[in-house]
Design goal:
heterodimer, A: 305 residues, mainly alpha, MetI-like fold, 14 helices, flat, B: 547 residues, alpha+beta, eleven-stranded mixed sheet, four-stranded antiparallel sheet, 29% helix, globular
């Protein structure tokens, strides 16, 4: 168990370090940030002065070492636009992102689990097909388009919900629906196949042979065992939702981490972009790690593998 | 059986709203500092005393006297594409409009520009130049900051000193060549410069005056998030990433604003921003992309177009190109282009060929007629310059930086090719593009827009050697001399005539292909009497309900 934990931690560390190198390099490859910080009519002397001040005149590896040194001391850098430490900015936006991701995940599960089980139980009927068509559609519709359509229907035409913003529960409805669609579809399909697989196991046949009611068989014997891959998927999805709500947050002007990141990219606030990506990769890796640990709890075989 | 499954589902669904609403507190809402009651009972009333200055610098008529107006009512939501990052008037980048449009409702300048871009009094009621190096400003009396501090000359001195001390981007002291600020009495300020500052008034229209006690003791955090000024609106709260809320200042020195509550929001996605206007969630939206201007027209909303100050032009790089070093060839390029057709088609009618390189109605050289579309003359000029068979060149353009920039570049290349200048278009990502211009490594032609400034010196600087973003390698001693002379001329009228001479010289020399003045588009709810200003700034104290 300890061995497993140590190995996974080292892997996670390696991933995060890799991400930091890539982001650092990519941000620097796309041009000198100094020029984007100053108005275009800034005198050349001013450009040179700021370049020195920000350390952009140093070789890349020196800049990188300085950056890593800061990170290790908990200093992710200072945002150029906000002129505040980036970590504070990210933490400030995290609650909104968690709120949206939670709402979307709960919504997705509320629909996906019953839908998947229903489709599995009624396999190869019209109902099954219909459920899976909905699921596939959910996976294929671009979030961007869906978000705008929902806002045109419910905000512009019907005027029952706000088109964007943050604050009340009404603001949450459209972004949550938009963001839930993908995990909903994925979980529904996975639930269906997981339940189907379990339904053909010997112990299910035994349960039925004992004369248990179908409902009991499903609930007590099938669902519990089918849950293992579903839990993994849910956790991974949640990680993706936390980091990947970029499109939804942008379309609905939701003040989360994703939108902060996009704004930072658009304004070339490179310390903020670096920190955001590092932060999101930490969240993602962290959730993966937790999932793995949870997995070992659910299925002891993995612990000793 | 069915029932239990259904009830399970219902139970999950029922928990949803509860889950969703859990973190109901918005992230880090900062609220306004407590407003102390005004120490003196005297109600501030606007004073106005227009006086024409010595040495030619004149103060125009002072602000209108207060007419009895109803108390502010209702609310207005202004939605932009980019959220404000930092509301410290000196630390943040106040040349960017998201911040400035919020700040200038709360804080005020000594001098402002009206919608025609003429200088008008704001916190200064009159001004004059004592000598070439000394500007004197008389301050408006009985003006109070929102925290109760009185406006005195000490506040102006404090603001200038603070800007010099803390900031990196507000370059007021460099721009005007500030030497020192003197305060002979409470309502007189003398700004002394190291060299004659012809751009003094222009630069003061972006410089906020702050209360010394408040900003003197405020932490960086407070200064960046809770602005205090003399403006028609006072700061209420800022929910990070979502909205800034302001409320009408009941103690304002001027006529009270019509609208009580202002909300500033940012919706980055263009389609969503337009939806917000159509849905009634926004009253004014800025930055409507030109290909979506039709979609803001509805029963309740309208388009508000304005010709901004940004001039779009083709830089002609003389280095490494013998033909482009010849004046006739550069003129030929100007004659070869039918920009009005490009304006009618690609720009949906919002683009007319420009003559003058400066944009403001008060400074533009109306005698300069744009180069006409004359392909025959272009060919003649090329032949005269020894390029009868034409030559090859490239045209670099960013994509998405300016309205339809890539499409315009392609059309321009086509026109140039028709007269024999075989032009290949290169689309370059913006940051790499601007770097190539600034470091002067770009060759051939490049499509660029100058800064959207109302200041003619600042605009003509784009053709000179003083700024970094001129990659043309055009150097003309006469032009530089005229610009320097204008910079050192404090008399506005004299300065303008010098600038006009510089402009005629540049027009003749054709260091660039003069194209057009870009339009900006806003969407507005029809209930408001509001038009976009060409400098893209909004003064909400002037916004009223439509009659």
């Amino acid at each position: 168990m300890t061995h497993f934990l140590v190995r996974r931690l080292l892997q996670a560390l390696f991933v995060v370090a890799g991400v930091s190198v890539v982001v650092f390099a990519v941000m620097r490859l796309s041009g000198d940030p100094t020029l984007l910080l100053l108005p275009p009519d800034a005198p050349a002397a001013e450009v040179q002065r700021l370049r020195q001040e920000m350390g952009f005149d140093q070789p890349l590896y020196v800049q990188y070492v300085r950056y890593v040194g800061g990170v290790l001391q908990g200093d992710l850098g200072t945002s150029l636009r906000f002129r505040r430490p980036t970590l504070g900015l990210l933490l400030e936006r995290l609650p909104a992102t968690v709120q949206l991701a939670l709402a979307a995940e709960v919504l997705a599960l509320a629909v996906a689990l019953p839908l998947g089980v229903f489709a599995a139980v009624r396999r190869n009927t019209v109902w099954d097909r219909l459920a899976m068509v909905i699921a596939v559609a959910g996976q294929s519709i671009p979030l961007f388009w869906l978000g705008l359509m929902l806002s045109i229907v419910f905000a512009v035409t019907l005027r029952v919900l706000p088109a964007s913003g943050y604050g009340e529960w009404r603001h949450l409805v459209l972004p949550a629906i938009t963001l839930s669609l993908f995990p909903l579809a994925r979980t529904a399909r996975l639930t269906r196949s997981a339940v189907l697989e379990v339904l053909y196991q010997d112990y299910i046949r035994t349960a039925r042979a004992k004369g248990l009611a179908e409902q009991v068989v499903l609930r007590r014997h099938a669902l519990g065992n089918a849950l293992l891959p579903i839990v993994t998927m849910i956790a991974l999805d949640f990680g993706t939702l936390l980091g990947g709500a970029v499109v939804t947050e942008t379309v609905f002007a939701w003040p989360g981490v994703g939108r902060l990141t996009i704004d930072a990219i658009a304004t070339r606030d490179y310390p903020l972009v670096q920190s955001a990506v590092l932060f999101l990769s930490l969240v993602f890796v962290g959730i993966n790690l937790l999932t793995d640990l949870f997995y070992t709890y659910l299925d002891p075989r993995i612990r000793f593998a | 059986m069915q029932l239990t499954r259904r009830s399970l589902l219902l139970a999950i669904v029922a928990t949803l709203p509860a889950m969703a609403c859990q973190p109901a507190t918005p992230p880090a809402a900062t609220s306004a500092p407590a407003q102390p009651t005004a120490p003196s009972g005297a109600a501030p009333k606007p004073t106005a005393a227009p006086v024409s200055g010595a040495a030619g610098a004149t103060a125009p008529a002072a602000a209108p006297t207060a007419v009895s107006r109803p108390a502010p009512t209702g609310s207005l939501t202004f939605v932009t594409g980019v959220e404000a990052a930092n509301l410290d008037p000196h630390a943040g980048n106040q040349s960017s409009n998201p911040e400035r449009n919020i700040s200038q409702q709360v804080l005020e300048y000594l001098v402002a520009r009206d919608s025609k871009m003429a200088f008008v009094p704001m916190l200064a009621t009159e001004w004059r130049t004592i000598d070439d190096l000394t500007w004197e400003f008389k301050l408006r009396r009985n003006v109070k900051f929102h925290n109760g501090e009185p406006l005195t000359s000490a506040a102006v001195k404090f603001s200038m000193d603070r800007a010099v001390r803390i900031n990196k981007q507000e370059r007021i002291h460099q721009n005007i060549g500030l030497d020192r600020v003197e305060t002979p009495d409470d309502y007189t300020v003398r700004i002394i410069t190291k060299a004659p500052a012809g751009n003094m008034l222009a630069r003061l229209t972006t410089f906020f005056i702050l209360p010394p006690q408040y900003y003197g003791s405020a932490s960086d955090e407070v200064a960046a998030t809770k602005p205090v000024g003399t403006g028609p609106y006072s700061f209420v709260s800022w929910t990070k990433g979502d909205r800034v809320t302001l409320e009408a200042n009941s103690d304002y020195w001027g006529p009270p604003p019509a609208i009580k509550t202002l909300t500033f929001r940012a919706v980055p996605e263009n389609g969503s921003r337009i939806n917000e206007l159509l849905a009634g969630g926004a009253d004014i939206i800025s930055n409507v992309p030109p290909d979506q201007i039709k979609s803001v027209e509805s029963a309740t909303t309208r388009l508000s177009p304005v010709q901004g100050f940004r001039k779009i032009y083709l830089g002609i790089v003389q280095k490494d190109s013998a033909p482009l070093q010849t004046k006739e060839v550069r003129q030929a390029l100007n004659y070869a282009i039918d920009f009005d057709t490009i304006g009618k088609t690609i720009l949906a009618g919002y683009g007319k060929r420009a003559g003058s390189f400066t944009g403001a109605p008060t400074s533009t050289n109306k005698d300069l007629k744009p180069y006409a579309y004359d392909p025959d003359k272009a060919r003649q000029l090329l032949e005269k310059a020894g390029h009868k068979d034409g030559f090859e060149t490239t045209l670099s353009t960013p994509s998405g930086r300016y309205n339809k920039d890539r499409e315009i570049a392609l059309a321009l290349a086509d026109y140039l090719t028709k007269v024999g200048v075989r032009t290949r278009v290169q689309v370059v990502e913006w940051s790499a593009f601007i770097q190539s211009v600034t470091e002067k490594t770009v060759r051939g032609l490049y499509l660029l827009g100058n800064g959207a400034s109302a200041d003619p010196i600042q605009q003509l600087d784009w053709l000179g050697t003083k700024i970094s973003s001129n990659g043309t390698y055009w150097q003309n001693a006469g032009f530089e001399q005229l610009l320097d002379q204008a910079r050192a001329t404090v008399d506005t009228a004299k300065q303008l005539s010098i600038l006009h001479r510089a402009e005629v010289l540049a027009f003749e020399e054709a260091p660039v292909v003069f194209l057009y003045q870009q339009y900006d588009f806003s969407g507005v709810n029809k209930r408001l009497d509001f038009e976009t200003r060409p400098d893209e700034l909004v003064f909400f104290k002037d916004v009223r309900s439509a009659a």
